[in-house]
Amino acid sequence: MRPANQAMRDIAKDRRERALVRKRTKIADEEARRAAAVPGAASSSTAAPMDVDGAESEETTLRAQEKQRLENALDKDLVADTGSNPTGMYELWAIVTRVSPTLLRSS
To answer: Structurally, how many domains does the chain consist of?
Structure first.
């Protein structure tokens, strides 16, 4: 279970880093467009706009590779066991069973 859990964490970390890079690239593109739109500014700006379709297809390819990496890290016996959680990652859910009267009055 530990290799699968570590693979999930690595994949989440990689996705956060890619999102940060996309955000920085988008900001740089917007700044380059603003600088090019200013009259009298140097028109020799070499900043190219971000290729959105290329970034999406690259992300799709990376997601497929991540899925394959995770499937390789999973223990086959745990995957075959009905009701098991082979990655060790859980979602926490809560059910409100009682609401305080003070909370009801404040709304």
So the answer is: 1
